[in-house]
Structures are given as C-alpha cells and as structure tokens.
Specification:
It is built from 35 helices and 17 strands. It is an alpha/beta fold. The longest helix is centred in the C-terminal third of the chain and has 21 residues. The N and C termini lie far apart (79 Å).
C-alpha cells in the first residue's frame, strides 16, 4: 500500500515533468498503481497515458517493465524520459535495434538499479536469455502499452502479445497496468481476460475530442482534392495515410512536384531514412508526412492540423487512433477521409487466404467502417457509440451535422426491424437481419430456415442497404445492442423492449450513396469544374479520330483524361503530359490535334486558364515503372514480379495499366498464354474491339462472371490497349 500523499504526488509531478496539475483520470490511475492494484486505462490519444506509468516508475522501488510494440515509439519515449533527468540511464529500451555492446550497457545499468523504466518489445520478451536476466531484478510493475494489440478484435493484433501473461509469470509477480487509446467493449473484455485482470480497476476517459472535425468525401479525383486542401492550409502540419507502400511513394512524389514539402514513410524503407523523415517532420522541415499506418504511434507532435485518409482504414479503431493524432494541443484538427466502396471490396480480397476466423473478424470490422462512412448520423455520436460511450446531442462539428441529410418517419421500420431480431432469437448479425427483412433468400437465410418464418420479407419494399442503415441508427439510439462475447449479434435492450410495447415517433436519416455521388460530394470532387462545351468538342474529335483509325475511342484518350483537359485547358504537348492518364507516348501519338483544338477554343472564348490550379503529375514514374517494363521485357512471371515489389497481382496490374494508358507499349503475352485459355483471350480481345467503353464491370456483365474473372479481363485489356493504342 502506498503512503504517498496527493501533495507529494503533485510536488513530484512539478519536479519531474513541470506540470502543476494532472489531466483527467491521471491522478486516480497513478494512486491506484502506487497502491499495488491492477489498473486498466482507456484514454484517447493526447490524454496523457504515458505519464500514468512514467511518474509511478520514478516513485517506486525497482524497475518498471514497459512492453511496447514499436521501436520508434520506444526511442521517442526514452528520449522524452531522459529529458526530465540529468542521468541518461534512468530509461532504456531492449530491442532488435541494439548492438551487443549496447545490450551489455543497458543490462549493467538495470542491475545497478539506475534504470527506473525499461522498454521491451514483446518479441524480445520471449527470448530465454532476457527472461533469465529479468528474473534477477526487482520489477515495480508491468505496463502493457498499446494493449489493444492483445485482442484479435483489436485493429493492430499481434499474436506475441497474447503470450505476455505466461512469460511475465515466469519473471515474477508485480501489479499490471494495461493502457490503450482505442478499445471497444469487446476488445477491453478480451484484453482483461487474456492478462487475467478482470478484477482490475478500470479508468475510462471520454472518447470525445471537441476540437476535431470529421468529414468523409467521395474518392473522385482524391489526389487533386488533397493538393487543393493542403494549398488552402499552407504551412500547417499534416499526416496523410495510405494503405499501400506504392500509394505512399506515388502520392508523396505528386505532392512534391506540386510544391508541397512532403515526405514518405513506410515499413519498406530502411530504418535510417524512416528516422530521418520522422525527425524532419517533427522539426518542421517538412509539412506533410505520407505514411502507412506504421507512422504515428506514440509520436508526440501536438500541432498536427490535419489527418487525411487517402484510403479508408481497415477498422474504426484504427481510424479513431489515426485521426486522434490531429490537434493534440487542443487546437484545430481536421480529419478528412476519401471513401469508395470499391476500397472495402479490395480490402476484403486481401483477406482471402487468411485463416477463416481472421477473415470473419476482418470482414466484421470492415462492415463497421463502411457503415460509419455511409451513415448520415453525427460522426462523433457514431464513434462514441462504437466505443461503448453514449452521447445524446449531436457534435455540431462534422460533415453530417453541418450538412444534414433528409429525414423520414422511422416508427414503422423500427418496429419491423425489432420484430425480426426477436424472431431469429437475437442470435444474428445486422446483415442477416437486413436480408430477412428485405426477403432475400441467401444461402445463410436458407441454412437457418429463416425464409420460412412469417416475418421473412416484412420489409421487402426496401433493400438491405436501407435496412442496414435503420439497424445502425437504432443501435446508436440504444434500442439494440451488440453482444460483447459474440461480437456483432444484435439484441434488444430494455429500451428496445419498451419501444416494442409503446412505439413513438422516431426520425431516421437517409444514408450517403458515395458510388452514385451526392450533390455535395460531386461539388467537392474535380468533375464540377469541367467545361461542358469543350468536353463535347473533345469527344467529337476523339470519335472522328477513332472512326478514321478504326479503333475504339477509349484507346485514344479515356473519359477521365478528356475531363481533365476540359478543366486545365492544356495548349502544348508538354502541358498535355500533366493530364491524368497521358504520358509522353500518348501525347506524341494523339495529342497534336487535341492541344490545337483547345488553344483555338481558349482564344475564341477568351478563357483565362486556371494555371495556378493545374495539378502537375509525376512524369515518367521513377525507377518503379522502369523496373516493371524491364522485367516484362525479360519475361518475368507477373506473380513473381508482384511478390518482389511487395504488391498483390491487382496492384501490379494497376501499375501496368497506368504505363500502357500513358502511351508505353508492353508485351505480356508470355504471361497471358500461361494463365488464360486461348479462346477466352480471343473473346475478351474481340469484346474490347467492339466495346463503347473500357469498363471492366461492363465486360464482366456482358461476357459472364462464371468463366471470366476481373484479373483475366484486365490482363487482356492491357494487351489490347498496348497493341491497338500504342
């Protein structure tokens, strides 16, 4: 039991850290830990979690062992602790980045009792030599940082985190403190159960961050929108998250050529470059970091003014944690995400091949993310609800609050939804419920014979998308809850049962439809600035050339390229290469007539060209494209090439498409002949010869999805575009 008074604690806080008062639950957490009790801390990013174990470590006898997942995070925190002390041995870390000499020095300092805080990666903790060493020292307590890594339902699950408890039991008994910035009730329960600390005192701070503005935008011309946004916020620090390393590299280069001080950051770069880029961002030598999710954990930069997600994250926990890096000083923080349902489908494809249980969890987390993006309910209310916190009022500081969607009377729909949840004995997830409501006889519905219950199809006038929106909104309103043990199963709350017996008027909101594009989404995108008169003339010219040369119009320039021309008015071949999908080859082959027509149009109509808004593209994409072209020349199988570049096959196909669309000819016959039947190749090739558009969806629909896959169609389309157009 600790005999440290609150006055002494405040004095130590001032002496060591320079603060006069504690934030939120910090004081209660520290007192609980000093009393030797297990402690669970749920505190949003910027709430001051680190202090909850740093201060007690200085006050207790022995060394506190902090288990932390990232080397960059450890270094950052050790540097920070050393800043509070004259003795550098006060804090150390043990991980794979240290030399043998470094390790000996660290262990000597710890054994001499000089080190109050020792950071260890979970992988290092499993090594027998480290376990034996740690048995020799007095552990004041164990701190599990980023504790959500323990749970398979957490957004950053690490299998080695689940082995912490048995290893720690070998080392020696001491109190536990588990800390995380993001945990749903399900994840919290999972963490406590795994660490055998279900009796721990739980300190849960509100997840509400009043200074953060949340907005979801349609992913039309996202690159252009991002450049425009950053230029409107010149000099402000920001982070842009992408899911793939390839996109990180591409986007940071595009920002750079457009005069924005941006740097890439991802796990494929060597450690020294990553460290250098991180330091340049912290020291304000760069304004923007374009990163995969590996960037930002524990990085204490208080004045990040915007966090942009170029790709939708895999989970709402990941989204919340990443957006939480904006405005940690309480100042402005804009969180903007670009969303397309195609990205969700792409992420689902990436899961194929993983264990079934992992796929199920991944799909459920993705569903939650898609629901959040498409919903028109206050963003903050949705997030808080997801983390088990209730908020009755709207935040008034998100896109849905500032631009509310049309509402309609929901009483009848809610009654139907609750009726079906009860009819299937509260044992099914939202998707299943919406299928029963809309009368869809899917294989799942038939398996459980729910197509035979009297409630089947009681809402067939609406589709599953509509019913999913209803189910989401009644979950936020707490008429329905998600079972914690069996994640996602819908159950009526007491409030839900009361609603069944005494229904009342209940307004519901229409969802966003990003695929069709809301009016406001279109306005935010690049297409709203298209000059319709010029667009028509450009299409006529393209048709004329296509008839003369007997090739489909899309082979000359795709619609996206024409739209870009009708925004930017390029009048020279050099300017034409800055247009989306136009490389030097394409410009040389087809460009002359187009730039002459545009120059004439600009002159006749006295048009002032928006050159300040012209988005420059990265011409002749660096070594990546050159390497791909050279590998194809050497007939390297595409799947091997994809593996060597850390891509999946679809990402590589996208890269080859952009090479071909820009006017470079490639020959992938050697690969096509290996993987696709000759008759299928002929059918696809002839389809594109007659087709009006180059759409893969249209091709799949016309050719039939049983025999023809998206991958096959895209490969043959590359062959066709290369042979006919280049």
């Amino acid at each position: 039991m600790s005999n440290i008074s609150k006055a002494v604690l405040l004095d130590k806080l001032k002496t060591y850290f320079g603060f006069d008062t504690f934030k939120g639950n910090q004081e209660a957490v520290i007192m609980n830990l000093l009393d030797g009790k297990d402690t669970f801390v749920l505190m949003p990013t910027g709430g001051g979690k680190s202090l909850c174990y740093q201060l007690p470590s200085l006050l207790l006898e022995g060394t506190a062992l902090v288990i932390s997942p990232l080397i960059a995070l450890m270094k950052n925190q050790v540097d920070s602790m050393r800043g509070f002390s004259t003795d550098n041995s006060i804090a150390h870390f043990l991980n794979s980045s240290l030399t043998k000499t470094d390790i000996i020095r660290v262990k000597n300092d710890v054994l001499k009792g000089k080190t109050k805080l020792l950071y260890v990666a979970p992988e290092s903790l499993t090594k027998e030599e480290n376990i034996e060493f740690l048995k020799k020292i007095k552990i004041s307590f164990y701190a599990i940082d980023e504790a959500h890594c323990i749970s398979e339902w957490g957004h950053d699950f690490r299998p080695e985190y689940r082995r912490i408890k048995p290893i720690v039991e070998k080392i020696g008994k001491a109190p536990f403190i588990a800390l995380t910035a993001t945990a749903t009730p399900k994840v919290q329960h999972d963490i406590q159960k795994n660490l055998n600390m279900l009796d721990a005192v739980v300190y849960k701070s509100s997840f509400r961050r009043h200074n953060l503005y949340y907005e979801i935008r349609s992913k039309d011309d996202a690159g252009k929108q991002i450049i425009k946004f950053i230029k409107e916020n010149t000099g402000k620090s920001g982070i842009i998250y992408c899911l793939s390393r390839k996109k990180v590299e591409e986007l940071s280069e595009t920002l750079l050529v457009n005069g924005i001080k941006a740097l890439p950051y991802h796990a494929g770069m060597d450690g020294s470059t990553r460290g250098k880029h991180q330091d340049m961002f912290l020291m304000e030598e760069a304004d923007v970091i374009v990163a995969t999710i590996a960037f930002g954990m524990g990085i204490d930069k208080p004045d990040v003014r915007f966090v942009i997600h170029y790709d939708i994250p895999k989970s709402l926990e990941g989204y919340y944690q990443e957006t939480g890096r904006a405005g940690r000083d309480g100042g402005e923080g804009k969180c903007i995400t670009y969303y397309s349902y195609k990205d969700i489908q792409k992420l689902e494809k990436f899961m194929q091949g993983k264990p079934i249980a992992e796929q199920e969890i991944g799909k459920q987390l993705l569903l939650e993310t898609a629901a959040f993006a498409e919903s028109s309910v206050c963003r903050v209310r949705q997030l808080l609800n997801y983390f088990g916190e209730e908020m009755l009022e709207n935040c008034g500081n998100c896109d849905n609050c500032l631009n509310p969607k049309k509402q309609f009377e929901g009483k009848e729909y809610i009654q139907k939804a609750l009726k079906v949840i009860l009819a299937v004995k509260e044992r099914f997830k939202a998707l299943h419920i919406s299928e029963v409501l809309s009368g869809k006889s899917t294989s799942d519905v038939k398996t459980y014979q729910h197509h035979e219950i009297k409630e089947f199809g009681i809402g067939k006038e609406k589709d599953t998308k509509f019913w999913n929106a209803v189910l989401r909104q009644i979950t936020i309103a707490k008429l329905v809850d998600k079972d914690i043990e069996n994640y996602g199963l819908l159950k009526l709350t007491q409030k839900g049962h009361q609603y069944m017996s005494e229904p009342y008027s209940f307004p519901l909101s229409e969802d966003h439809n990003f695929e069709e594009g809301d009016a406001e989404d279109k306005a935010a995108g690049g297409t709203s600035a298209v000059d319709p008169a010029l667009m028509k003339i450009l299409k006529d010219l393209r048709k004329k050339i296509s008839q003369k040369q007997e090739i489909p119009p899309f082979v000359i320039f795709q619609d996206q390229s024409l739209e870009d021309m009708a925004v930017q008015y390029p009048t020279t071949l050099d300017e034409l290469t800055n247009i989306a999908g136009v490389g030097h080859g394409k410009a040389q082959k087809f460009g002359k007539d187009f730039v002459e027509l545009i120059a004439k149009y600009v002159k006749e109509n006295d048009i002032e060209r928006p050159q300040d808004l012209v988005v420059k593209s990265v011409v002749n994409k660096s070594g990546q494209k050159v390497h791909i072209i050279q590998s194809i020349d050497r007939k390297v199988p595409l799947d091997d090439l994809a593996d060597s570049k850390g891509m999946d096959i679809i990402e590589l196909i996208e890269e080859i498409e952009s090479i071909v669309n820009s006017g470079t000819r490639v020959n992938i016959d050697y690969y096509i002949n290996e993987v696709i039947d000759e008759d299928l190749v002929t059918d696809i090739y002839e389809y594109f010869r007659e087709a009006e558009t180059d759409s893969v969806e249209d091709a799949l629909s016309d050719l039939g999805e049983d025999e023809f896959s998206e991958e096959f169609i895209r490969l043959v389309r590359i062959k066709f575009m290369s042979e006919i157009g280049n």
